[in-house]
Amino acid sequence: MKVVISQPMLFPWVGLLEQVRLADVYVNYTDVQFSKGSFVNRVQVKTANGSRWMTVPLADLHLGQRIDQVRPSDKRPWREEHLALLADAYTDAPYRDAMLDLVRGVYAHDYADIGALATASLLALCEYFDLDRDCRFVDIDELGIGDSGSTRVLKIVRSLGGTRYITGHGAARYLDHAAFDRTGIAVEYMDYTKAPYPQLHGEFTPFVSALDLIANTGSHGKKFICPRITPWKDFPTHERNRAISD
């Protein structure tokens, strides 16, 4: 039983879809502190003039708020701005209309908090690429598990019957690998494939929204979502040190 736990990201990059493709259970981790500058409310879009941020403005943000307490602001027409940015950036993309329809579908609804919006954007991508068929999505508030840090993560994985915990590189900052080993749960880090696919606007970059994959490849893009993992003991020391120092 493979478990992935992640904070939501707005129309995330393909790397997060790689994690979803591996997961039997994916936990939306929305009751933790919102970090300004994170990818919860913004993502990069590749344009003819370089990568640009597509950002959802936030209402009355203050220090210490949880992701599920931060509200999108409607003082600006950000939905229309995002759609205009995407329409212009992908004018020549073969599956531009399918990508825009997906975004319109997500933006057609109102969301109580930024976590709900970001989660909806992820689920829309997963449905498009048929990644939701073999993965169960769980909101953290359904589990009723307290504590914090590595201890809480371990409790979550155990409560779900997980035998493997698959995580991004940032977990190297705080994860107690020995505690997982003692309970028989394998910790595995993503070895992001970042597989190149046909892409507009110059040299390939993987660090943009997966909307780019849809616009350029359509549903055929699923073949570029090809995850790899590394057991924690084999995770390169320099990668662990970099994650800790970041």
Relative strand content: 15-25%
Q: Strands of the largest sheet, in order across it?
A: 7-2-1-8-9-10
Radius of gyration: 18 Å
Q: Could you tell me the number of beta strands? A: 10
The helicity comes to 25-40%
In the residues, how many domains can be counted? 1
How would you spell out the order of helices and strands?
Answer: EHEEEEEHHHEHEHEHEH
Classification by helices and strands = alpha/beta
Low-confidence stretches: none
Distance between the termini: 30 Å
Average of per-residue pLDDT values: 94
Count of discrete alpha- or pi-helical segments spanning 4 or more residues: 8
Explain what the structure shows.
It comes from Solilutibacter silvestris. InterPro entries: WbqC (IPR014985). This is WbqC-like protein. It contains eight helices and ten strands. The chain is an alpha/beta fold. It has one domain (2-245). The strands form three sheets. The chain has a six-stranded mixed sheet with strand order 7-2-1-8-9-10. The chain has a two-stranded antiparallel ribbon with strand order 3-4. Strands 5-6 form a two-stranded antiparallel ribbon. It is globular.
